[in-house]
Structure formats: C-alpha cells, structure tokens
Amino acid sequence: MAGSSLSAMAKRIYLLAGHYGSGKTNIAVNLALKLKSEGKAVRIADLDIVNPYFRTKDSAKVLEEAGIELISPAFANTNVDLPALPAAVYSIVQQRDFYAVMDIGGDDRGAYALGRYAPAILEENNYEMCYVANFYRPLTPTPQDALEIMQEVEQAAGIPFTAIIHNSNLGNSTDAKAVEATFEKANELAALSGLPILYTAVRADLADKISAENILPLHLQEKYYDIEE
Amino acid sequence: MAEKVLMKGNEAIAEAAIKAGCRHYFGYPITPQTEIAAYMAKRMPKIGGTFLQAESEVSAINMVYGVAGAGFRVMTSSSSPGVSLKQEGISYIAGADLPALIVNVQRGGPGLGGIQPSQSDYFQATKGGGHGEYHLIVLAPASVQEMADLTIKAFDLADQYHVPTMLLADGTMGQMMEPVELPDTPPAEVEKPWAVRGTEGKRPHNIINSLYLDPELLEKTNFERFERYAKIEENECMSESFMMEDAEYCVVAFGIAARVAKNAVVAARKAGLKVGLIRPITLWPFPKKVLAEAAEQVKGFLSVELSMGQMIEDIKLATACKKPVELCCRTGGMIPTPEQVLESIEKLAKENQ
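Predict the joint structure of the above. Result:
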C-alpha cells in the first residue's frame, strides 16, 4: 500500500489551513490517525469558527476508538452557531508531551482563530503549517489563485506556511485521472510558494492507482445521503 | 459543458445565478446559507455586479423589488427566520408581477429554531407565505448539480411568467459538497418593455405597483394572475420517478429527504418489496397528475419529510385520498435515517397488503 511507505511524521504540531472547502477536516482526522499509528499520544483540535456543519466532531467515534483526544467547541454540531473556542485548545501548545493536529477554518476568516496560539507555536518551533489545496474548488482553479489565498491565510494566522498538502478531488466522482490532471498545478504552486508538497492526499481506494511521492491515503466517512449510482 | 468543479450547494447557487446573468445580490447573513453571500461578495465586484449586505432582510428584499422593477435579474437568499422577515416584500413583488429569485436554505423552526437542516417551511413556500393570494414557483433541488441547474431554471421561469420564484433547499443541501458542471452558454436575452429604466422621453412611463385603488381592477389583476398560475400548473410540473414501473408502494420525498428515501427504496427492493419513489422537483406547482396516476397503481404512499408532515397534505389532495398516506418524519434539525424510512416502508406494506 502506498501509504505504508510514508516516513514517520517529524513535527509535534500539524496545522491544517487553506481555502474554504479544501478538505482540511478530513486530512486532519487522517493525520491524527497516522500519528497515533506511529505509537504517539495524539490530540486533535477543531478550531473551525466558520463552518456550521461537517465538523471534526463527526469523526468523534473513530477518534475515540483510536484513543485520540478530541478538543471540540462545546456547541459544535448543535443548533447554535457560536464560534467560541474551548480553553482546552491551550493544552496543545502548553503540554508538549503530546502530538497534535489543529483543524483550522477556511480562508483568512477561518485562520484568524489561530492567531492567539501563534506566538506559542512559533516559540516552540516544532510545527508543520500545511496549506491544503484542491484545484477543483471554484475559487482556486489556478496555482495563482491558490497562492493568493495562501498569502491571505498566513497573514491572518500569523504563521507562515511550511508545506503543501495537495488534495485535489471531485468528491465521490474522483478518479485517478482527475487527481493526476492536477499534478502540474500542484508543482507550480510549490514552485511559486517555495514550499514542498508534504503529501498528495487521495481517497484510500485510489492510493495504488496513482503514482506520486508521499501519497496519504484518506479514509473518508460515509454519509447518510450518499447515493449509490 | 464547462469543466467539473467541487462545490458546496450554497456556492453552486451563487455561481449558477451569475451564469444566469444575475448581477445584483442583496442579502443578510444567516447560517446555513451564508456561503451564498460570501461567494457573491467575492465574485460580484470582479464581474461588475452588485453585492450588497443590507441592514436587514426587510431591506434586502425591498432592494430586490427595486432591481426587479428595473428589469434586471436579481436575487436574495436567506434561511428560515430571515425568509419570514422577507414575506412582506415577497408579497409586494408577487403583487407587482415581477420576476425575482428568493433562496431559502431551511433550518429548524419555529422561531429562531436552530441551524441544522429542515423542510418545515414547506407551507410558507408553497401556499403563499405573505399576505394576499399569490404563489411562488418553488423548486426543490436534491443534489448540488440541481442546486445550480434549478437556480438557472428559476430565473428563466420568473422571466417567462412574471412571478417571483423560490429555490427551497435545506441546510444539508447548502453545506454538502459534490462535483458540479456549470453551463458556459450565455443566459437568454429577455425583452422587458415593462421595466422602469427611464423613458428617454420616447414613451409614456412605466409604473411598478401593487396598489389598486379600484377594487374591480384589483380583482381583474388577480384573475389575470391566476390564469398565469393555471398555465404554470399545466406546463411546469417537474418530478422524478424512481423504480415506479411495477411499484406497489410509493415513497414521496423531496430534497435531502429524497436522497435518504432513495437509499431506503433500494434497500426495500433488495428485501423483496416493490417500492418506488416520486420526487417532486417543483413543490408549487405540485406534480398532482403523477401522484394521481400513482394512486391508481399503488396500495399506499409514504411521505418522508423533515417536518411534522406538510407535503403529506398535498399528496392527499393530489390523490383524493384514494390510498392511505403515511408519514415518516424527523424535525428540529434531525434527518430520518435510511433505516427509519425502510421500517416505515415495511410497516406501510404490512398494513396495506
């Protein structure tokens, strides 16, 4: 399996940011599971103050079964839209004997939430700030568009990006061809930004059908409304 | 066709509206439809359009009234409590016979309710909503692709029949992401000689109005409008029939409920039950004929709704209560599971053999 050849994750904190709807939450959950599979103690924090539905908390069961601690706003998945972050998020920057994944809201508006933790993260300097990119999203069809949002996000977050996670997909109708068709754009974004592509994230069943370095196979949640075609 | 992109339902509405030639959006943010406003805020300035966040929903709908009167394609969007606030303006737009699009990405109610998905604004959307007698053409998408396609259709129908149209979605439809193809054909050019755009001194001025001092004239206007409604009912009903050919039981559901119901129908077929699905795509006009025909064929109906049972009344009317109509529902932001729908189908079949 392509995923098993991935080397162990080197940093203590993985920050997932990027444009709206680029797939940050799915990747955050999968990275937390990967850290756990490497035998580490892991926490995952939902910092999304923008998105009302489809939260990290949707994966609460999977995370709990894996023994990963989920830090989620008290009102996530309830009937109120209250973008308040729990105090427990500070444990991620304060307790350094844990590995951690932080799932940050989309665009610059979502990234502002990271600002209050940025000084501590920068001071410790043991993090990977990952820009999640999907070139099939309507407002980031080109590397230039993706770069523009990258700059807006890092300005809002107060932490510069250190890596790209390439996650181009078309949801359920993604195939290997659709992913490979975006490799050139991903490489161009890497060149424009001067950042390495840390992973190419693909749905797990496509992992063996795509030839790229550092493929991160994604296990996605099935949804009640998915229709079998 | 254009290239495929991965979009949220809300974004698909916004981009489709732009493709349909809409260059004027007025709104006020409310979850779970705020992405429509956010998308318009980003896109409209780049294409010479107007995005304006009004000080309230009441204000936004009256801006829509104004631009509709000027004959330009215009829209607003909101979610349930916000759509209630717009009702006065919607009634005025209907009374002035103007084309405009109102999007309702429903959330739980009544009152402030909650931010999770719902279909409990069915009565409000299909029976008028505001004061006076009028209808909106109400379109109910069940995929992100349909969010786009029906948005474009809603603008076309509004222009064709001089009526406000409503896209009635729910929070899940607004938030979910699916691949979409948007058309790259330019929108149809529609002549609007009635529009208030300045006479240049060449013709008598047009008047946009919903006030009639003479009751006889108001009655005549209402008669004329209802003749148009009759044409809409005759020509514009849309529905999808799924596995209905040999069905003995018929599930009726729209929007997100229809997606869940479809999975339940497939599961019921595997269990040996002859079940089909009728999915109304237009909620007004309601696809009465299709349901009346089904009533001749099946032994019973099951209405699946994210409400305490509203569409079920239209099913009973359309079928003249010829066969039993049962309800499977959740409310308050909850969605029936395929298992719950399957259980209800099994119960319906058992009780109506």
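Chain B touches chain A through 35 residues (CB under 8 Å).
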